[in-house]
Amino acid sequence: MINTDNYYSKTSGLDFSTLPPALQKGHEFVDKVTMKGESWTSYESSPTIQKVIDEYFKKLSEHLPEKSEAKKERKEEKKEKEKSVHPKKEKVKNERVQKVKTETKEDVELVERIPDELRFMKRYIKLHNKKKTKEELLRFINALQKAILERRIRKDSAWSKQINYMQENLLKVYNGMKGRSIEIEISPKTWAEFKKEIEGEKEFKSIQFIKRYVNLHGKIGIKEKAKKLFEQINRAVKKRKIEKGDKYATKLNQIWLSLQDFLADKSKKTLPMNSAELNGLMGFLGKCNCGLNGVEDEDEGESESGNKLMSSMDFADMEFDSIGLKDKWRELMGDPAPGFTAMVFGKPKTGKSYLCVEFAGYLARNHGKVLYVAREEGLDKTLQIKLNDKNVKHENLFVSDFLPEDLSEYDFIFLDSVNKLGLSAKDLDVLRKSNPGKSFIFVFQTTKDGNFRGKNEFQHDVDIVIEVAEKGKAVQFGRYNQGGEMSIFEG
Questions:
Q1: Whole-angstrom distance, CA of residue 142 vs CA of residue 300
Q2: Domain spanning 327-487, CATH architecture
Q3: Angle of helix 205-216 versus helix 249-264 axis, rounded to 10
Q4: End-to-end CA distance of the chain
């Protein structure tokens, strides 16, 4: 009789195309539910799936030729006899393996969500031997205090001693800082104690994967991340990291199929999950109290919504990073923070692209990798002339006539122009949020009267607004250095 233990071994040489349609569909269903035999957790955790597959096994067993079955059974009996040559030795080995597995499972408790106390303890020991600024330490302290005020961490917590220790030491280091940054040192005893507590609880692997999947939904340019997640799920299943009887295996299998479909179709830009399925996953995460945070470290101490609350006195003393723009670029747009957004607009032939090409060259020489998407002109002689006129060619400056899906290796991305790329304000917002920390410069073509569709909507969503109202003259009126001007064709 065919069962879960022998299904794939007994059907290894079987040509399913010769079987009746019902049996062919049964095989396809087993492949999907079990990830082609890699995991039977969905079968074990769902009575409905179990019933369907058992019925299919029964019909397939009845259909298979008896001689073929008898032949395979004899082969299996022979293998069993060979294994039993040294039964005592085999038994001892199995007992040893079982003992190791049992001890490991007893030491670690699987949970839907790691408690906030352990999350903060994990962040704390990660500070060891790392340089941190006053701003970074303050964010940690505020996040910890916020968790206490919101009663996510209570006075009667099993880890209240460790929480108080972290608070006192972080405040001591913060108040004693004289320079802009300091290297944090944690005693070996504290590090070992915290590490032991952290390793005492472990989140269901399936939950980790599901949360990562939901965080990818609705974003563009995530093919590589989706591929990485898909491969990690496969490896986890093969290495049996998804525990037997995992109650979330059915949900995991659902996203595995969705990722497989997404990666197989190159035309798809976003994950192919409809709103009902997504709402189902979101509701499931809420019911199991899993949350959407915690897959990656909650570094920087923000709440799940990204909100912050702090004293105005502390805020006034904070030091923020900036790009470090100099000379005419600083005079035009001030000195924005990393991850800024800018829009450049004006009539055709006024010098917008010259301005952007020169700015791209300046950034490449001084501040990081730059991608210039020249959709308006393409990679032709006109763009080459501009690059040579402004003498901006550099190993950190890359040009393209299309917008790549993966922008992870670039610090600054120019889109020339948004009109030709056919991107809406919503598209640009998704692009920016999908690439945190990246700076975007959006170039727009205007009509003869100097306007374009969605001008106000775009203008309100960016930090820097540069208008080239007349040939060769740029004026900036965004959030930084309003009124800054620059002559495009001079210097």
A1: 10
A2: 3-Layer(aba) Sandwich (3.40)
A3: 40
A4: 84
Record the tokens describing residue 270, joined without a space.
Answer: 């976003």
> Positive or negative, the Cα torsion across 219, 224, 227, 232?
negative
Element (H, E) at 129: none
**Domain residue spans in the chain?**
7-83, 116-201, 203-287, 327-487
Per-residue b/e over 105-132, b at no fewer than 16 CB within 10 Å? eeeeeeebbbebbbbbbbbbbebeeeeb
**Burial label, 290 (beta-carbon count in 10 A; 0-12, 13-18, 19+):** buried
Query: From CA 124, how far away is CA 141, in angstroms rounded?
Result: 11
Hey, which bits of 60-130 come out as E strands? 109-111
DSSP characters over 338-397: TT-EEEEEE-TTSSHHHHHHHHHHHHHHHT--EEEEETTT-SSHHHHHHHHHTT---TTE
Q: How far is CA 426 from the centre of its chain?
A: 20
Query: Tokens 């108080």 belong to which residue?
Result: 164
Task: List per-residue pLDDT tens for the chain, 491 residues long.
Answer: 788 888 888 888 788 888 888 888 888 888 887 877 777 777 776 778 888 888 888 888 888 764 444 555 556 666 665 555 454 444 444 444 444 343 444 466 666 667 888 889 998 999 988 888 888 888 888 888 888 877 888 888 888 899 899 988 899 888 888 887 888 999 999 999 998 888 877 766 777 788 888 777 667 778 888 888 888 888 887 777 776 656 677 778 877 888 888 888 877 777 765 544 555 555 555 545 555 543 333 443 333 334 455 556 555 655 566 788 999 999 999 888 888 999 999 888 889 999 999 999 999 999 989 999 998 888 888 889 989 888 899 999 999 999 988 888 899 999 998 988 888 888 888 888 888 889 999 999 887 776 666 566 677 778 899 999 888 899 998 777 778 899 988 76
> What SS3 state is found at 132?
strand
Phi, psi of 398 (to 5 degrees): -115, 145
CB 272 within 8 A of CB 257: no
Per the CB < 8 A criterion, the answer to whether 167 and 144 are in contact is yes
Write phi, then psi, for 77 (nearest 5 degrees).
Answer: -65, -40
Angle of helix 249-264 versus helix 275-287 axis, rounded to 10: 150
Parallel/antiparallel/unpaired status of strands 464-470 and 473-476? antiparallel
The answer to whether the beta carbons of residues 309 and 146 sit under 8 Å apart is yes
Dihedral sign for Cα 140, 141, 142, 144, please: positive
Q: From CA 325, how far away is CA 320, in angstroms rounded?
A: 14
Say if pTM beats, i.e. exceeds, 0.90.
no
